[in-house]
Design goal:
Layout (H helix, E strand, L loop, with lengths): L7 H35 L29 E2 L13 H14 L1 H4 L32 H10 L14 H13 L10 H13 L3 E2 L5 H11 L16 H9 L3 H10 L7 H8 L17 H16 L1
Antiparallel strand pairs: 1-2
Helix pairs in contact: 2-5, 4-5, 8-11, 10-11
C-alpha cells in the first residue's frame, strides 16, 4: 500500500536512511556503555595500596598458620649495630612498620590509618613534636614498644626481637623532622650492655588451629556460685546475696583471678574492677571492711560447695 505514496527508489532511500540512523544510535550506545566508563576510570587518581595484614614473626601464637617450630636461643645483639640509625636498620624498621603499624598510624605515621577512626585516644602522629606519652627520644620509643601505653590501644610489642624493636624505634623517629631530643647517656649505655649481655629466647611456635584445639581441651567450665537461699539470716549470706548479681559471671571473675583467696583486701581489689559486668553489684564500692570480710567468708564457702 505504501507504493501508492512513494516510488520504489524513494522507499529504498528511506529504508537506507533508517538503517544508517539505527546503526549510528547503536554505535553511540556502545560507546557510552563501554568506552566512556573506561576513560572516566583512567582519569581517576591512583588508589592507595592496600594495607598488608600484620604478620607475626616470633611468639607462640602467630596470626598465620606457621608450621610447628621448637624454641631456640638468639645470640646477643651487638650494640654497635642497633644503637645508631643506619640504612639497614631503617629499611628493616620500615618493613616492620608497614606490617604492624600502618593500620593505625597510617603509611606516613600521621595517625590516619584505616583503623584510626574507631580508636580513642587517636593513634600518635609521629610527624608532630607534641603529644608523645613517653617522649620522642629513642629510648622513650623503645620503652613504648616494650611496655605499650596503658589506657590506649598501643599494646606491648615485647614479643618482637630486640633488634627489630630498635629498628622500628629508629624508623618511627625518622618520620618526624623535628628535634627528638637527647637520650640519657647512662640509660643508653645500660641498654647497650643489656643487648650485649645475653641473647633472647624465641618460644615454641605452633599453628593457630593446633593452639585453638589445645585451648578447647584445656577449657573447664566454671560452675555458677552457689548462693544461699533468700531470707537466710546469716550475715555472710546477706552480704553475698546483695553483692552478687550474676552468679555465673561472678564465678568466672573469681576463677580468672585466684589471688582473691588471699584475704578480704585482695578480694576487694578483684571484685571492685568493672562492676557490674564482672557479675558483682556496683554497690560493693560502699561495703565496709566488716562487710568485705563477710563477703570473703561467704565466697570461700560458696566456692567450696
Amino acid at each position: 500500500m505504501i507504493d501508492q505514496y512513494v516510488s520504489p527508489n524513494e522507499l529504498r532511500r528511506l529504508i537506507s536512511t533508517l538503517l544508517v540512523t539505527v546503526g549510528a544510535i547503536t554505535i553511540f550506545g556502545l560507546f557510552a556503555l563501554i568506552v566512556v566508563p573506561g576513560l572516566r576510570n583512567a582519569n581517576k587518581p591512583p588508589a592507595s595500596p592496600p594495607v598488608a595484614a600484620p604478620q607475626g614473626e616470633t611468639g607462640w601464637l602467630d596470626p598465620t598458620e606457621y608450621p610447628p617450630e621448637h624454641g631456640y636461643e638468639l645470640p646477643p645483639v651487638d650494640p654497635k649495630t642497633v644503637m645508631t640509625a643506619n640504612p639497614e636498620l631503617l629499611k628493616r624498621g620500615k618493613a616492620l612498620f608497614e606490617q604492624n603499624c600502618v593500620s593505625c598510624h597510617g603509611p606516613a605515621g600521621q595517625g590516619d590509618g584505616p583503623g584510626a577512626a574507631g580508636i580513642n585516644p587517636r593513634p600518635r602522629d609521629f610527624t608532630k613534636a607534641d603529644g608523645w606519652k613517653n617522649g620522642p627520644q629513642l629510648l622513650a620509643i623503645y620503652k613504648t614498644l616494650d611496655e605499650g601505653i596503658k589506657g590506649s590501644s598501643m599494646t606491648s610489642y615485647n614479643y618482637v626481637r630486640a633488634r627489630d624493636r630498635m629498628a622500628l624505634a629508629h624508623y618511627v623517629q625518622s618520620l618526624g623532622s623535628f628535634p627528638h631530643g637527647q637520650d640519657d647517656p647512662a640509660a643508653l649505655d645500660a641498654l647497650a650492655k643489656q643487648f650485649a649481655k645475653g641473647g633472647e629466647k624465641v618460644p615454641n611456635r605452633i599453628p593457630v588451629h593446633l593452639a585453638m584445639a589445645k585451648l578447647e581441651t584445656e577449657f573447664k567450665a566454671v560452675a555458677p556460685l552457689a548462693l544461699p537461699p533468700r531470707g537466710e539470716s546469716d550475715a555472710n549470706a546477706a552480704v553475698l546475696a546483695q553483692a552478687v548479681v550474676n552468679p555465673t559471671r561472678a564465678a568466672q571473675t573469681l576463677a580468672a583471678a585466684p589471688s582473691w583467696r588471699e584475704n578480704a583486701a585482695a578480694l576487694a581489689a578483684v571484685v571492685s574492677n568493672e562492676t557490674p559486668t564482672n557479675g558483682f553489684a556496683i554497690s560493693v564500692a560502699t561495703l565496709s571492711p566488716q562487710d568485705w570480710q563477710a563477703l570473703y567468708d561467704g565466697l570461700v564457702k560458696a566456692t567450696q560447695q
